[in-house]
Amino acid sequence: MVDLERVAPAVRAAGAALLVDVTHAVGVMAVDVRRTDPDFLVFPTYKWVLGPYGRAFLYVARRWQERGVPLEQTSHSRRAVAAERAPYLADLRFAEGARRFDMGERDHLITLEMAAVGMEMMAQWGQAAIEQRLAMLTAMLAEGLRGTGVRLPAAGLRAPHVLSLEFPGGMKEGLVEALAAEGVHVAPRLGRMRISPHVYNDEADVEAFLRAFRHLIPGAQSSDFWG
After folding, report:
1. Helix 203-216, helix 127-144: angle, nearest 10
2. pLDDT of 64 strictly over 50
3. pLDDT tens, 88-142?
4. Is the pLDDT of residue 223 over 50?
5. Is residue 57 within 8 Å of residue 112, measured between CB atoms?
6. In the chain, how long is the greatest CA-to-CA distance?
7. Which GO terms describe its molecular function (predicted)?
């Protein structure tokens, strides 16, 4: 949980550019480029805005739109390079605005439609409501895990939609796979377990996780569990 409103001025004062990866924030947490004023901000759609793989969006501050150099050099990032007409290399200047930063396969149009549907659904429900709902589910998980020996970040340090479990003695071998066999899907991350509910999860999923966890972890049966 990085306070970008404090970080951004320090970055600018050092003469550096600020690139923000909001992969795990956009859709659930408030993201406002007017407040933080990043130079670049990027996110894919497959994480939290219910979109497909292979589609990502890049915000480019106006101060970079006419002078930034794209990492990927493509024909359509230039003003006039096309095989349909002669001369082929008619104008090698970069395209106006942020279009110079477009990916090579920007014309994969089906993913744009898929991404639009997901983001429109999320916008209709509202970021604040989604954040509140997912924070409630992770709070239920945290409460249910009290007394089981796992360590959790303090509530003030946690994102509302991601819970990371630390196992002081190391995570039990095969635990993630065993949970999956019981229909509970979580992710191993560097010896920790990441639980990241989304809008398609509910209280029954929390209960399913806690039941499976109790069953698979010796000593996890505890009156401190939520239930």
Report:
1. 30
2. yes
3. 888 888 888 888 888 777 777 899 999 999 999 999 999 999 999 999 999 999 9
4. no
5. no
6. 77
7. transaminase activity
Peptide bond into 52 cis (omega under 30): no
The burial class, CB within 10 Å (0-12 / 13-18 / 19+), for 38 is buried
Return the HEC string of 25-63. CECCECCCHHHHCCCEEEEECCCCCCCCCCCEEEEECHH
Tallying the residues shown for the chain, one arrives at 227
Mean pLDDT of 2-13: 92
**DSSP of 85-124:** SSSSEEEEEEPSGGGGG--TTTT-HHHHHHHHHHHHHHHH
pLDDT of 219 reads 63
Higher pLDDT, 224 or 210: 210
The residues near 158 (Cβ < 8 Å, ≥ 6 apart) are 1, 138, 142, 152, 164
Cα distance between residue 145 and residue 82, in whole Å: 59
Q: Are 5 and 23 in contact (CB under 8 A)?
A: no
Reply yes or no on whether the pLDDT at 227 is more than 50. no
Pairing, β 56-60 against β 40-44: antiparallel
Q: For the chain, which domains are there?
A: 4-125 (3.40.640.10), 127-216 (3.90.1150.10)
Give the bridge partners for 57, in sequence order: 43
Residue 63 corresponds to which tokens in the numbers above?
């101060």
The pTM (predicted TM-score) of the whole model is 0.81
Q: How far apart are CA 103 and CA 99, in angstroms?
A: 9
